[in-house]
Task: inverse folding
């Protein structure tokens, strides 16, 4: 019997929902792998190639697009960002579960190409709490915060496209629930195809004994 | 905010997969409600109406079919068996999770009518183990056991219709995993419709402040 493949869980949510903190908690506590993005933007002070990002030239990135080496990609301002296929599939083929923290349009692209992935949406309990968190962070100016809240209003329409929706009210509780949910994804039909095939052929063989 | 509705988990599997034992473990350990079937068959010694079954006359049962008061039903030999809607929906509306242990064709009927339910399939690790368990039970004659194994071979074709498939190799582990899976079902899109509506209208209202 071959070992089971890992599963791919795509995690998105409103800016300020606490996705990053939840994903960090999941990796440090339970050892999940997190997909590393490829980008054409210049490395910032202290950023390492292959750890923070896979840094690529524009030419290299466009070659990756052409050769379909990306699960999803998008262009922001003048830079490309994308999720390399080899890294993610290498991990799941060796039995590791991989988390992809990507924004909503990227998430829907991934689901379309790979229906076996599960899309998980994280939301704060309400709009007031989302704004509170963005204000508390203290990294953005009021007009940027307003824009993020407005964007969240638009993004509400994507929620019904997600497979699972979880409220991040209490961080510890959210991390524990999320781990339990991700482990349960191993039992989905799409992730049990190997088992279905094995059981079916085993029963047929058994009948012929 | 209204409380969340309970969820409906339909559990099926090959005869000998250990469904009954798993369901008993789930109810005694975690307090799940289990749907009680309606039937036209005569009560056996010690069976209680409203506990083991809802005992109905043929006329009453056919009236229930006509009034669409059953989630699913089937006729075996000369008796009807079915799952009453009122009982199940009463439970989930009061926030309790309900388990339905029904055979595969009934399970697929339920899913067709109520797509928000989740179908979970339990399988033994392989055919030899299924046969072992049926033999160990000691309640059936060899020819009945052969028929059950043959039926399992046919039933393999239903596995891909299920939402989740779980191996029952170790009973304790299976009960724990199943509880974790059922709890995760609360986060599925279909079971989070109230949350999606609430968040969407809250964000819209927040924008208009």
Result:
């Amino acid at each position: 019997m071959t070992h089971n493949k890992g599963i791919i869980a795509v995690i998105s949510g409103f800016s300020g929902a606490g996705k990053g903190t939840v994903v960090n908690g999941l990796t440090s506590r339970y050892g999940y792998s997190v997909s590393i993005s490829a980008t054409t933007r210049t490395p910032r002070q202290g950023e390492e190639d292959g750890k923070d990002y896979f840094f690529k030239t524009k030419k290299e990135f466009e070659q990756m697009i052409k050769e379909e080496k990306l699960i999803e990609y998008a262009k922001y301002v003048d830079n490309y960002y994308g999720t390399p296929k080899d890294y993610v599939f290498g991990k799941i083929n060796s039995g590791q579960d991989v988390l992809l923290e990507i924004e909503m349009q990227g998430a829907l692209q991934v689901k379309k190409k790979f229906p076996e992935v599960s899309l998980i949406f994280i939301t704060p309990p309400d709009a007031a709490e989302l704004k509170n968190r963005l204000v508390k962070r203290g990294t953005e100016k009021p007009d940027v915060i307003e824009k993020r809240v407005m964007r969240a209003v638009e993004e509400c329409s994507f929620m019904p496209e997600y497979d699972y929706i979880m409220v991040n009210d209490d961080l510890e509780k959210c991390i524990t629930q999320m781990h339990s949910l991700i482990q349960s994804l191993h039992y989905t039909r799409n992730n049990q195809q190997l088992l279905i095939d094995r059981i079916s052929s085993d029963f047929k063989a058994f009948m012929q004994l």
